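In the laboratory, one determines a bound structure by crystallizing the protein with its ligand and collecting diffraction data. In a computational setting the workflow is compressed into a single prediction: the sequence and the ligand go in, and a structural description comes out. We illustrate the idea with fe (ii) ion.
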Amino acid sequence: MIYKNSRGMEVTASCQSTVDLLDQFSDGLLGFSDQTSSYVEAATADDSCPLAQALICMDWLSAETPVGNAAAKVHLGKALALQENATPREKQMIVASQHWAAGNLRKAAVTLDELLTHHPDDITSAKICQVLYFNLGDAPGILRAPMKVAERCADIPYTHGMLAFGFEECNLLDEAESSALKAIEMKRKEPWAQHAYAHVCEARGAYEQGAAFMEDMSDTWSGLSSFMYTHNWWHMCLSYIDMDRLDDALSIFDQHIWGIDKSCVQDQINAISLLYRLERVGVNPGDRWSDIANSVVERAYDQVSVFLDLQFIYALARADHPEADKMLDRIRMRAEQAAPHERIIWQKVAQIAAPGLVELARGKPHTASEAMTLIFPYLSQIGGSIAQRDLMHLFYLDALMGARKFIRAHEILEKRRSNRPSVNWIRHSLNKVYNALDLPQVAKGYVSTID
Ligand SMILES: [Fe+2]
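The predicted complex, in C-alpha coordinate form:
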Protein backbone atom coordinates (compact mmCIF):
# COMPACT_ATOMS: atom_id res chain seq x y z
CA MET A 1 0.00 0.00 0.00
CA ILE A 2 1.06 3.57 -0.61
CA TYR A 3 0.68 6.19 2.13
CA LYS A 4 1.74 9.81 2.32
CA ASN A 5 4.24 11.26 4.79
CA SER A 6 4.00 14.72 6.37
CA ARG A 7 5.61 16.32 3.29
CA GLY A 8 3.18 14.61 0.93
CA MET A 9 5.70 12.07 -0.38
CA GLU A 10 4.68 8.51 -1.13
CA VAL A 11 5.85 5.75 1.19
CA THR A 12 5.26 2.03 0.73
CA ALA A 13 4.04 0.49 3.98
CA SER A 14 1.29 -1.66 5.44
CA CYS A 15 -0.18 1.13 7.56
CA GLN A 16 -0.05 4.90 8.14
CA SER A 17 1.49 4.49 11.60
CA THR A 18 4.72 3.18 10.02
CA VAL A 19 4.92 6.32 7.90
CA ASP A 20 4.26 8.45 10.99
CA LEU A 21 7.17 6.73 12.73
CA LEU A 22 9.41 7.56 9.76
CA ASP A 23 8.31 11.20 10.06
CA GLN A 24 9.37 11.08 13.71
CA PHE A 25 12.67 9.53 12.64
CA SER A 26 13.20 12.36 10.17
CA ASP A 27 12.44 14.98 12.79
CA GLY A 28 14.80 13.27 15.24
CA LEU A 29 17.55 13.00 12.63
CA LEU A 30 17.30 16.66 11.70
CA GLY A 31 17.12 17.79 15.33
CA PHE A 32 19.81 15.34 16.59
CA SER A 33 17.42 13.75 19.10
CA ASP A 34 18.74 10.91 21.25
CA GLN A 35 15.54 9.02 20.31
CA THR A 36 16.15 9.05 16.53
CA SER A 37 17.11 5.39 16.08
CA SER A 38 14.20 4.10 18.16
CA TYR A 39 11.66 5.51 15.68
CA VAL A 40 13.17 3.85 12.63
CA GLU A 41 13.67 0.64 14.57
CA ALA A 42 9.99 0.63 15.44
CA ALA A 43 9.12 1.29 11.78
CA THR A 44 11.02 -1.84 10.68
CA ALA A 45 8.37 -3.93 12.43
CA ASP A 46 6.35 -3.23 9.27
CA ASP A 47 7.69 -5.94 6.97
CA SER A 48 6.37 -4.29 3.83
CA CYS A 49 8.18 -0.97 4.20
CA PRO A 50 11.39 -0.85 2.12
CA LEU A 51 12.11 2.75 3.16
CA ALA A 52 12.32 1.80 6.86
CA GLN A 53 14.91 -0.85 5.98
CA ALA A 54 16.95 1.55 3.84
CA LEU A 55 16.85 4.25 6.51
CA ILE A 56 17.84 1.95 9.36
CA CYS A 57 20.61 0.59 7.16
CA MET A 58 21.97 4.13 6.74
CA ASP A 59 21.40 4.87 10.43
CA TRP A 60 23.66 1.94 11.30
CA LEU A 61 26.26 2.97 8.70
CA SER A 62 26.45 6.42 10.24
CA ALA A 63 27.82 4.81 13.43
CA GLU A 64 31.05 4.23 11.44
CA THR A 65 31.96 0.98 13.17
CA PRO A 66 32.33 -2.63 11.94
CA VAL A 67 29.41 -3.65 14.19
CA GLY A 68 27.27 -0.90 12.65
CA ASN A 69 28.33 -1.93 9.15
CA ALA A 70 27.37 -5.57 9.82
CA ALA A 71 23.95 -4.59 11.17
CA ALA A 72 23.45 -2.30 8.19
CA LYS A 73 24.03 -5.17 5.77
CA VAL A 74 21.27 -7.23 7.38
CA HIS A 75 18.80 -4.41 6.81
CA LEU A 76 20.13 -3.79 3.30
CA GLY A 77 19.25 -7.41 2.50
CA LYS A 78 15.70 -6.84 3.75
CA ALA A 79 15.42 -3.60 1.76
CA LEU A 80 16.57 -5.34 -1.41
CA ALA A 81 14.01 -8.09 -0.86
CA LEU A 82 11.28 -5.43 -0.78
CA GLN A 83 12.51 -3.25 -3.64
CA GLU A 84 10.19 -4.77 -6.27
CA ASN A 85 7.21 -2.98 -4.71
CA ALA A 86 9.13 0.19 -3.85
CA THR A 87 8.51 3.61 -5.39
CA PRO A 88 11.26 5.10 -7.62
CA ARG A 89 12.36 7.35 -4.70
CA GLU A 90 12.55 4.40 -2.35
CA LYS A 91 14.51 2.42 -4.94
CA GLN A 92 17.06 5.23 -5.12
CA MET A 93 17.35 5.22 -1.33
CA ILE A 94 18.07 1.50 -1.46
CA VAL A 95 20.72 2.04 -4.16
CA ALA A 96 22.34 4.75 -2.01
CA SER A 97 22.34 2.37 0.98
CA GLN A 98 23.92 -0.30 -1.18
CA HIS A 99 26.78 2.01 -2.25
CA TRP A 100 27.34 3.23 1.30
CA ALA A 101 27.31 -0.32 2.70
CA ALA A 102 29.89 -1.25 0.04
CA GLY A 103 32.08 1.59 1.29
CA ASN A 104 31.61 3.84 -1.72
CA LEU A 105 30.44 7.03 -0.06
CA ARG A 106 30.89 9.05 -3.25
CA LYS A 107 28.42 6.91 -5.20
CA ALA A 108 26.00 6.96 -2.27
CA ALA A 109 26.15 10.76 -2.05
CA VAL A 110 25.73 11.21 -5.79
CA THR A 111 22.73 8.86 -5.81
CA LEU A 112 21.00 10.92 -3.10
CA ASP A 113 22.05 14.14 -4.81
CA GLU A 114 20.26 12.96 -7.98
CA LEU A 115 17.26 11.88 -5.93
CA LEU A 116 16.99 15.39 -4.50
CA THR A 117 16.82 16.90 -7.98
CA HIS A 118 13.56 15.03 -8.53
CA HIS A 119 12.29 15.15 -4.93
CA PRO A 120 12.93 18.66 -3.55
CA ASP A 121 10.63 17.93 -0.58
CA ASP A 122 12.83 15.12 0.72
CA ILE A 123 14.62 16.84 3.58
CA THR A 124 15.56 13.48 5.14
CA SER A 125 17.57 12.52 2.06
CA ALA A 126 19.12 16.00 2.04
CA LYS A 127 20.29 15.46 5.61
CA ILE A 128 21.80 12.06 4.84
CA CYS A 129 23.35 13.43 1.65
CA GLN A 130 24.95 16.26 3.64
CA VAL A 131 26.41 13.75 6.11
CA LEU A 132 27.91 11.75 3.23
CA TYR A 133 29.47 14.81 1.61
CA PHE A 134 30.76 15.82 5.04
CA ASN A 135 32.47 12.43 5.36
CA LEU A 136 33.97 12.97 1.90
CA GLY A 137 35.22 16.46 2.76
CA ASP A 138 33.23 17.78 -0.21
CA ALA A 139 32.33 21.32 0.90
CA PRO A 140 30.27 22.26 -2.21
CA GLY A 141 28.33 19.00 -1.76
CA ILE A 142 27.68 19.86 1.90
CA LEU A 143 26.01 23.03 0.63
CA ARG A 144 24.34 21.55 -2.47
CA ALA A 145 22.40 18.88 -0.56
CA PRO A 146 20.30 21.38 1.48
CA MET A 147 20.23 23.86 -1.40
CA LYS A 148 18.19 21.35 -3.41
CA VAL A 149 15.41 21.38 -0.81
CA ALA A 150 15.85 25.02 0.23
CA GLU A 151 12.81 26.36 -1.62
CA ARG A 152 10.31 23.60 -0.93
CA CYS A 153 11.41 23.10 2.68
CA ALA A 154 11.94 26.77 3.55
CA ASP A 155 9.30 26.43 6.27
CA ILE A 156 11.47 23.93 8.18
CA PRO A 157 14.12 25.48 10.48
CA TYR A 158 16.49 22.55 9.92
CA THR A 159 16.77 23.46 6.23
CA HIS A 160 18.40 26.75 7.19
CA GLY A 161 20.64 25.03 9.74
CA MET A 162 21.91 22.68 7.03
CA LEU A 163 22.39 25.59 4.64
CA ALA A 164 24.32 27.46 7.33
CA PHE A 165 26.75 24.60 7.78
CA GLY A 166 27.15 24.19 4.01
CA PHE A 167 27.87 27.89 3.56
CA GLU A 168 30.39 27.82 6.41
CA GLU A 169 32.30 24.87 5.01
CA CYS A 170 32.46 26.75 1.68
CA ASN A 171 33.87 29.74 3.60
CA LEU A 172 30.80 31.84 2.76
CA LEU A 173 30.66 33.11 6.32
CA ASP A 174 28.14 35.96 5.97
CA GLU A 175 25.63 33.67 4.27
CA ALA A 176 26.31 31.01 6.91
CA GLU A 177 25.67 33.46 9.72
CA SER A 178 22.37 34.71 8.34
CA SER A 179 21.10 31.17 7.61
CA ALA A 180 22.05 30.03 11.12
CA LEU A 181 20.29 32.99 12.72
CA LYS A 182 17.22 32.44 10.57
CA ALA A 183 16.99 28.81 11.69
CA ILE A 184 17.43 29.78 15.35
CA GLU A 185 14.81 32.50 15.02
CA MET A 186 12.38 29.89 13.71
CA LYS A 187 13.36 27.35 16.37
CA ARG A 188 15.75 28.21 19.19
CA LYS A 189 16.55 24.56 19.82
CA GLU A 190 18.17 23.97 16.42
CA PRO A 191 21.49 22.44 17.45
CA TRP A 192 22.93 22.13 13.92
CA ALA A 193 22.28 25.84 13.26
CA GLN A 194 23.78 26.76 16.64
CA HIS A 195 26.74 24.59 15.70
CA ALA A 196 27.09 26.30 12.33
CA TYR A 197 27.10 29.68 14.07
CA ALA A 198 29.90 28.45 16.36
CA HIS A 199 31.82 27.42 13.23
CA VAL A 200 31.39 30.90 11.76
CA CYS A 201 32.80 32.49 14.94
CA GLU A 202 35.66 29.99 14.96
CA ALA A 203 36.51 30.77 11.32
CA ARG A 204 36.47 34.52 11.99
CA GLY A 205 38.52 34.26 15.16
CA ALA A 206 35.51 35.72 17.01
CA TYR A 207 35.99 33.39 19.95
CA GLU A 208 34.44 35.64 22.61
CA GLN A 209 31.30 36.02 20.48
CA GLY A 210 31.25 32.27 19.84
CA ALA A 211 31.61 31.41 23.52
CA ALA A 212 28.89 33.86 24.59
CA PHE A 213 26.52 32.51 21.93
CA MET A 214 27.06 28.86 22.85
CA GLU A 215 26.77 29.65 26.57
CA ASP A 216 23.42 31.27 25.84
CA MET A 217 22.21 28.29 23.76
CA SER A 218 23.49 25.54 26.09
CA ASP A 219 20.21 25.35 28.02
CA THR A 220 18.65 23.80 24.87
CA TRP A 221 21.08 20.87 24.68
CA SER A 222 19.06 18.33 26.65
CA GLY A 223 17.77 15.27 24.81
CA LEU A 224 20.39 15.54 22.06
CA SER A 225 22.35 12.63 20.62
CA SER A 226 25.67 12.24 22.42
CA PHE A 227 27.50 13.40 19.28
CA MET A 228 25.62 16.68 19.02
CA TYR A 229 25.68 17.28 22.77
CA THR A 230 29.41 16.68 23.17
CA HIS A 231 30.24 18.41 19.90
CA ASN A 232 28.49 21.67 20.78
CA TRP A 233 30.31 21.68 24.12
CA TRP A 234 33.51 20.92 22.18
CA HIS A 235 32.96 24.07 20.14
CA MET A 236 32.51 26.11 23.30
CA CYS A 237 35.82 24.73 24.55
CA LEU A 238 37.65 25.80 21.37
CA SER A 239 36.61 29.37 22.18
CA TYR A 240 37.62 28.95 25.82
CA ILE A 241 41.09 27.79 24.79
CA ASP A 242 41.55 30.91 22.68
CA MET A 243 40.33 32.97 25.65
CA ASP A 244 42.77 31.16 27.96
CA ARG A 245 39.89 29.83 30.06
CA LEU A 246 41.67 26.50 30.35
CA ASP A 247 40.23 25.40 33.70
CA ASP A 248 36.72 25.95 32.36
CA ALA A 249 37.51 23.97 29.22
CA LEU A 250 38.93 21.07 31.23
CA SER A 251 35.90 21.10 33.47
CA ILE A 252 33.62 20.92 30.39
CA PHE A 253 35.73 18.04 29.08
CA ASP A 254 35.03 16.10 32.28
CA GLN A 255 31.37 17.05 32.66
CA HIS A 256 29.99 17.30 29.13
CA ILE A 257 32.35 15.64 26.66
CA TRP A 258 34.13 12.55 27.91
CA GLY A 259 31.78 10.13 29.61
CA ILE A 260 28.47 10.83 27.91
CA ASP A 261 28.82 7.76 25.66
CA LYS A 262 32.34 6.38 25.71
CA SER A 263 31.46 3.84 22.99
CA CYS A 264 30.41 6.47 20.43
CA VAL A 265 33.15 7.19 17.89
CA GLN A 266 32.14 10.85 17.60
CA ASP A 267 32.34 11.28 21.39
CA GLN A 268 35.73 9.61 21.28
CA ILE A 269 37.16 11.99 18.70
CA ASN A 270 35.63 15.02 20.41
CA ALA A 271 37.50 13.93 23.54
CA ILE A 272 40.77 13.13 21.77
CA SER A 273 40.94 16.33 19.78
CA LEU A 274 39.99 18.47 22.78
CA LEU A 275 42.44 16.80 25.15
CA TYR A 276 45.23 17.30 22.61
CA ARG A 277 44.32 20.97 22.19
CA LEU A 278 44.31 21.41 25.97
CA GLU A 279 47.56 19.57 26.59
CA ARG A 280 49.46 21.50 23.93
CA VAL A 281 48.64 24.78 25.70
CA GLY A 282 49.87 23.51 29.03
CA VAL A 283 46.96 21.67 30.67
CA ASN A 284 47.97 18.57 32.62
CA PRO A 285 45.89 15.72 31.16
CA GLY A 286 46.26 13.55 34.27
CA ASP A 287 45.21 9.99 33.47
CA ARG A 288 42.70 11.06 30.82
CA TRP A 289 44.71 9.65 27.89
CA SER A 290 44.72 6.18 29.48
CA ASP A 291 41.01 6.44 30.11
CA ILE A 292 40.33 7.38 26.49
CA ALA A 293 42.71 4.69 25.20
CA ASN A 294 40.83 2.02 27.18
CA SER A 295 37.67 2.89 25.24
CA VAL A 296 39.38 3.47 21.92
CA VAL A 297 41.41 0.25 21.89
CA GLU A 298 38.44 -1.58 20.40
CA ARG A 299 38.54 0.88 17.49
CA ALA A 300 42.12 -0.14 16.63
CA TYR A 301 40.69 -2.85 14.38
CA ASP A 302 38.19 -0.61 12.56
CA GLN A 303 39.80 1.10 9.57
CA VAL A 304 36.35 2.39 8.62
CA SER A 305 37.43 6.04 8.38
CA VAL A 306 40.82 7.70 7.95
CA PHE A 307 39.54 10.76 9.81
CA LEU A 308 38.67 8.64 12.83
CA ASP A 309 41.63 6.25 12.67
CA LEU A 310 44.22 9.04 12.78
CA GLN A 311 42.75 10.37 16.00
CA PHE A 312 42.38 6.91 17.52
CA ILE A 313 46.00 5.98 16.81
CA TYR A 314 47.28 9.20 18.32
CA ALA A 315 45.31 8.55 21.53
CA LEU A 316 46.62 4.97 21.76
CA ALA A 317 50.21 6.06 21.18
CA ARG A 318 49.92 8.99 23.60
CA ALA A 319 48.69 6.58 26.28
CA ASP A 320 51.63 4.25 25.51
CA HIS A 321 49.14 1.53 24.63
CA PRO A 322 50.79 -1.47 22.90
CA GLU A 323 47.88 -1.62 20.45
CA ALA A 324 49.20 1.51 18.68
CA ASP A 325 51.89 -0.43 16.78
CA LYS A 326 49.47 -3.18 15.82
CA MET A 327 46.99 -0.59 14.60
CA LEU A 328 49.77 0.93 12.50
CA ASP A 329 50.27 -2.43 10.79
CA ARG A 330 46.54 -2.71 10.14
CA ILE A 331 46.42 0.78 8.64
CA ARG A 332 49.32 -0.14 6.32
CA MET A 333 47.49 -3.30 5.28
CA ARG A 334 44.25 -1.37 4.74
CA ALA A 335 46.13 1.11 2.54
CA GLU A 336 47.61 -1.70 0.43
CA GLN A 337 44.17 -3.24 -0.07
CA ALA A 338 42.29 0.04 -0.63
CA ALA A 339 39.79 0.12 -3.49
CA PRO A 340 40.50 2.68 -6.27
CA HIS A 341 37.98 5.24 -4.94
CA GLU A 342 39.62 5.32 -1.49
CA ARG A 343 43.30 4.92 -2.38
CA ILE A 344 44.17 8.58 -1.99
CA ILE A 345 42.96 8.85 1.60
CA TRP A 346 44.43 5.55 2.78
CA GLN A 347 47.72 5.70 0.83
CA LYS A 348 48.45 9.44 0.66
CA VAL A 349 47.08 10.41 4.08
CA ALA A 350 46.53 7.52 6.53
CA GLN A 351 49.59 5.45 5.68
CA ILE A 352 51.85 8.52 5.94
CA ALA A 353 50.26 10.46 8.80
CA ALA A 354 49.61 7.51 11.13
CA PRO A 355 53.29 6.64 11.74
CA GLY A 356 54.03 10.35 12.00
CA LEU A 357 51.42 10.81 14.71
CA VAL A 358 52.72 7.80 16.62
CA GLU A 359 56.20 9.36 16.52
CA LEU A 360 54.82 12.71 17.65
CA ALA A 361 53.01 11.09 20.57
CA ARG A 362 56.27 9.36 21.52
CA GLY A 363 58.21 12.61 21.54
CA LYS A 364 59.90 12.30 18.13
CA PRO A 365 58.66 15.41 16.35
CA HIS A 366 61.29 15.41 13.60
CA THR A 367 59.97 12.27 11.87
CA ALA A 368 56.43 13.44 12.51
CA SER A 369 56.97 16.79 10.82
CA GLU A 370 58.47 15.14 7.73
CA ALA A 371 55.53 12.75 7.43
CA MET A 372 52.85 15.36 8.03
CA THR A 373 54.28 17.72 5.37
CA LEU A 374 53.13 15.31 2.69
CA ILE A 375 49.46 14.91 3.58
CA PHE A 376 48.03 18.40 3.24
CA PRO A 377 47.18 18.39 -0.51
CA TYR A 378 44.80 15.49 0.20
CA LEU A 379 43.72 16.23 3.76
CA SER A 380 40.22 17.58 3.11
CA GLN A 381 39.29 14.28 1.42
CA ILE A 382 39.37 12.43 4.76
CA GLY A 383 36.20 14.28 5.75
CA GLY A 384 35.25 16.15 8.89
CA SER A 385 34.80 19.89 9.18
CA ILE A 386 37.40 22.61 8.69
CA ALA A 387 37.55 23.09 12.48
CA GLN A 388 37.96 19.36 13.11
CA ARG A 389 40.68 18.95 10.48
CA ASP A 390 42.53 21.86 12.06
CA LEU A 391 43.75 19.28 14.57
CA MET A 392 46.03 17.90 11.82
CA HIS A 393 47.44 21.40 11.26
CA LEU A 394 48.08 21.70 15.00
CA PHE A 395 49.82 18.32 15.05
CA TYR A 396 52.00 19.55 12.19
CA LEU A 397 52.75 22.90 13.82
CA ASP A 398 53.68 21.21 17.09
CA ALA A 399 55.91 18.74 15.25
CA LEU A 400 57.66 21.65 13.50
CA MET A 401 58.14 23.48 16.80
CA GLY A 402 59.41 20.33 18.52
CA ALA A 403 61.80 19.65 15.63
CA ARG A 404 62.98 23.30 15.78
CA LYS A 405 61.89 23.88 12.18
CA PHE A 406 61.11 27.48 13.01
CA ILE A 407 61.06 29.01 9.53
CA ARG A 408 58.06 26.90 8.51
CA ALA A 409 56.44 27.23 11.95
CA HIS A 410 56.77 31.02 11.72
CA GLU A 411 54.77 31.10 8.49
CA ILE A 412 51.94 29.08 10.01
CA LEU A 413 51.86 31.03 13.24
CA GLU A 414 51.80 34.45 11.60
CA LYS A 415 48.84 33.30 9.46
CA ARG A 416 47.04 32.18 12.61
CA ARG A 417 47.81 35.44 14.37
CA SER A 418 46.08 37.44 11.62
CA ASN A 419 42.57 36.75 12.99
CA ARG A 420 43.63 35.87 16.54
CA PRO A 421 46.10 38.63 17.48
CA SER A 422 45.46 38.35 21.21
CA VAL A 423 45.51 34.58 21.68
CA ASN A 424 48.17 33.74 24.24
CA TRP A 425 49.45 30.44 22.93
CA ILE A 426 50.02 31.96 19.48
CA ARG A 427 51.87 34.92 21.00
CA HIS A 428 54.01 32.65 23.19
CA SER A 429 54.88 30.49 20.18
CA LEU A 430 55.78 33.53 18.08
CA ASN A 431 57.95 34.87 20.87
CA LYS A 432 59.85 31.60 20.91
CA VAL A 433 60.10 31.46 17.12
CA TYR A 434 61.38 35.04 16.68
CA ASN A 435 63.96 34.55 19.42
CA ALA A 436 65.13 31.33 17.78
CA LEU A 437 65.32 33.10 14.41
CA ASP A 438 67.55 35.80 15.93
CA LEU A 439 64.90 38.49 15.86
CA PRO A 440 64.68 39.33 19.58
CA GLN A 441 63.41 42.83 18.80
CA VAL A 442 60.30 41.36 17.14
CA ALA A 443 59.99 38.63 19.78
CA LYS A 444 59.65 41.21 22.51
CA GLY A 445 56.46 42.56 20.96
CA TYR A 446 54.79 39.21 21.52
CA VAL A 447 55.38 38.99 25.23
CA SER A 448 54.58 42.56 26.23
CA THR A 449 50.82 41.96 26.23
CA ILE A 450 50.81 38.38 27.48
CA ASP A 451 49.11 38.10 30.84
FE1 LIG B 1 31.67 21.25 14.34
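The longest strand covers residues 2-4. Keep in mind that any predicted model is a hypothesis to be tested, not a measurement.
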